[in-house]
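Quick entry, no commentary yet.
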Amino acid sequence: MSTKAIPQVLGFRRVSRRSTLTCRAPFDTLRGMSKGFQIAAGATLIALLMAWYAATNLAPGAAFTYYKSLDEFQNAADARAGKHSRVHGYVALGSIERDVAAMQVRFTVQGEPPHAQQGAPSALLPVVFGSLETPDLFKEGAEVVVEGQLVQTQDGGHFRADKVMAKCPSKFEGDPSADTRAASLN
C-alpha cells in the first residue's frame, strides 16, 4: 500500500495547497437557528439571570427586605428574637453621641417626626451604630432607616445597627402656616 492511499483509506481527503481552511464564527451558528429559538434562548437567559439576582438578594438582611415602622417593630416577634430587621423612624432631638474612642455613634430613634409631635414621644429605640461614618443627611430630626438587630443587655437592650440610611427630606411638604391662612380665607 502506498503512502498516497493511506489518507484515502482513513477517510481523509487530500487538500490542495491552494485551498484554505475556513473556521465558522459563533455568530454564524446563530444564523443557522430560527428566530423563535433565538428569542426563547435570550428570554431564558434573562429569566435565569433575574432569578439568580433575586435569590442572592433575598438572603437574610439583603436589599429586598422592607422596613417596619418603630411601632410595628416593637410589637413584632422579630424584635424579641434578635432577628435581622430594618426599622424606620426619626432621630430624636439631642440624642446623637459620637464616641470616638469606641468608634461608634449612639442615638435614639422615635416613631414620629420631632417637629410634628406634641408632648413626649410614644416609642423610643436606642441605637448603637458601629462606625463613625454616618450619611451626610444624618442629623437630629432626620428620617432614618436603621438595619441590624435588637441586642439584649443588662440595662434593657439596644438596637445594634449595621447600616444607617438617612432619607432625603421631602421638598413638597406643605407649610403649616399656609394651611391656617387658607382655612381663615374660607
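second:
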Amino acid sequence: MAKKKLFLHVGPEPRALTHADLSQHRALLAGAGCLVPEIAQPALDAAATEMLRNHRARGLSRREVEGAWAGITRGLWRLDADMAIAQPQFAEADVDQFALILDHLAGLDVHVMLLLRADEVGTIPAWSRLLPAPRLHVREIEEGAAPIDLAEALTGVVWAVRREDEQGRTSRLRAITQRRRTLPAA
C-alpha cells in the first residue's frame, strides 16, 4: 500500500496566506485528490511556536504550546487520504527545528512547497538539504498573492507528484514485463 502524502506549504511567502486561507479553496485541491483537513489556525500557530521554540518572544509559556504539533500530526495520521496543510512560519526554522518538524511526520510521504518571490528564488533555506530533491518543490509567487494563488500552486505540485508517481509505476511495470520476457523457458 502506498504511503499517504502530505503536501506542506512552509512559506516563506506569502506570509499572510495561512492554512485558513488554503481551506477556503479545498474544493480545488479535492479535485486533485488531496484533502485540506480542518485544523484551527490558532492550533497551527501554537505548533509553529512550539517547533520554532519562540514561545517566550510571543509571551507564552512552554506549557501553553507543548504538544501542539504532535496533536496535529496525530490527527493527520487518522485521515485516510493525501492531504495538504499550510504553515508559512515553518520556513523560519533552522536545520534542527525542521528536522523535528519532519520527525513528527515519519511514515508519511512528505512534500514541502516553498513559495518565493522572484527576487528570492536563489535563497533556499538550509533545512532544504533534509529533503530528497524530488520532495522539495520551489515555486515563484508574485507580491500580494491571493489565497487562490496558494491553492493553485499547491494543486500544481500535487498533480506534478501524481504524474511522477504514475511514470515511476509505468517504468517499474515495463521493467518487470521485460524481465519476464527474457527469462528462459523452463
